[in-house]
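Milestone M4 deliverable, item 7.
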Amino acid sequence: MDYSKYYKNKGICFVLSGPSGVGKDTVLEYLKSSFSLNKVVTATTRPPREGEIDGVAYDFMTKEDFQQRIKEDYFVEYASYADNFYGTPRKNVEKLINEGKNALLKIEVQGAVNVKKIMPETVLIFLAPPSMEFLEERLRGRGTDSEEDIEKRLKTAKTELEHIKYYDYLIVNEESEKTAEIVKGILTAKTLEINN
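Output delivered:
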């Protein structure tokens, strides 16, 4: 029997943060195969690349529009990177949640803290490396970063680790598949909690 007409499930908004090279994308790939995740469409002021569709890849807007929307509290978080703005429209997050879908934000620590302030039911999960040596090894193993970039990323990682106290959960990511199972357990429990 289908009971869905008697109740309407709410989705959950969750944020995944962690230093560059800690394995966030790998964990999310494992997670996608067994848990329903919906990446929130974010906004940007950078021009569309070939094949990118407005409203699908990003909500593309001018810098003037973006700055006006900042004043209107349109975003749950935003940042400036390489002369462009990037932000998460609150309505895009709320739309998914109200449709009973889980909204995923993979963002840095300052943004995560801001989202939690605006949407207190958001679940913040921080992925940490087993050690800084492990992280350095991972970054070097990728073979995509210069020595200067690696040093910069390691310095940023130390700053990010100081923000762990603002997160609901800390997971040390030694093995991505196992970490994905832990994240899935947290999200399943939180979804049940919100809907009961």
